[in-house]
Amino acid sequence: MKGVVSKVMGLYCTVYCDAIYINCVMRGKLRQLIEAGSKKFSNIIAVGDEVVITKLDDSSGVIEEILPRRNYFSRKEKGKHKKIDMIAANCDCVVAMQSFALPRLNLRFVDRIAVRCVEQNIPLVVCINKCDLAKKGDYEYVTGYYKNTDVTVIISSANTGYNIKALKDILHQKTSVIVGYSGVGKTSILNAMYPQLSLVVGEVSGSTGKGKHTTTNVSMIIIDETTRIIDTPGLREFGIMDIEPHVLGKYFYEFDNYAHKCSFKPCTHDHEPDCEIKRLVQKGIIFEERYISYRNILYSLKDYYATMYS
């Protein structure tokens, strides 16, 4: 029987198969084989993995095989011995949730998610909630920031219903990962799109302006047989420390389109003279704040690799 992993809890998984949920364990020999062959991941199976299972007499199951992944969405934090944390597998789309207030917009955080999406060839949607709380100039800032990129931007409000249908249409017939800070309104947006879910909505702390976790584990919500949502706990950081500094530019959408015109190859678009990317920033074709975000990530990666190999 074939199914898809909808939740992972240590050695146990819930697998959605033939319209039912089956509690499964991984075959011991399979687990040992995967662990021996892959040293880079902290987890050997993830939500979204397609698997082959054997159903047992007590209605539980055993995972016999993990089928090849199309892609995976992951993060890697600082630390020489830290492994890659695989958040989800076989994703058609990643939705990076932000809000205009409580907590405040932080597109530099989204840029890190975008790097991972480009690396894994996963389309990115940036959904900015609470547009009813936006300040003057916020809309223009967002549209300018992502001009000349392949990022889809949806400005929405779970409170008023603005653009909820537009986001729902984008997610239709896809397996989509929802990721962002706690408090940006991930759960409220999901409830607005799919009222039948009746998910519990958390509060935003009055002292910190940050949200409190309502989602505690990565889990797949089956909307129908073709539309699936992978909900994730709120993230405060998103590490991409497995990306080497000299290749970072190819994962910034608008940079890679023009990098061939740089005099130096490869060009890190930082200290090199006659750099096309820096020229485009000066001309306003690439948004300056986005370039600053790139350099911040570049320097953090350079520092990390210099420390790791010293």
Q: Estimate nothing, just give the exact number of structural domains.
A: 3
In round numbers, the mean pLDDT is: 92
Q: Give me the CATH fold name of the largest domain.
A: Rossmann fold
Label the structural class.
alpha/beta
Strand numbers in spatial order across the main sheet: 10-9-8-11-13-12
Query: H/E order of the elements?
Result: EEEHEEEEEHEHEHEHEEHHH
Beta-strand segment tally: 13
- Level-1 CATH class name of the largest domain: Alpha Beta
- CATH superfamily name of the largest domain? P-loop containing nucleotide triphosphate hydrolases
Portion in helices: 25-40%
Number of helices: 8
Uncertain ranges: 207-213
Overall outline: globular
Report the CATH architecture of the largest domain.
3-Layer(aba) Sandwich
Rg measurement, Å: 21 Å
Percent range for β-strand residues: 15-25%
Main β-sheet description: 6 strands, mixed
Describe this structure in words.
The protein has 310 residues and is of the alpha/beta class. It folds into three domains: 2-68, Beta Barrel (OB fold (Dihydrolipoamide Acetyltransferase, E2P)); 75-80 and 87-231, P-loop containing nucleotide triphosphate hydrolases (Rossmann fold, 3-Layer(aba) Sandwich), CATH 3.40.50; 245-308, Probable gtpase engc, domain 3 (Ribonucleotide Reductase Protein R1, domain 1). It is 26% helix and 24% strand. It has helices spanning 28-37, 107-119, 138-145, 164-171, 186-193, 253-256, 276-283, 288-308; strands at residues 2-9, 12-17, 20-26, 50-55, 61-66, 72-75, 85-89, 93-99, 124-129, 152-155, 175-180, 219-222, 228-231. The strands form three sheets. It has a six-stranded mixed β-sheet, with helices on both faces. α2 (107-119) crosses α8 (288-308). The longest helix is centred in the C-terminal third of the chain and has 21 residues, at 288-308. The N and C termini lie far apart (50 Å). Mean pLDDT is 92; it is low at 207-213.
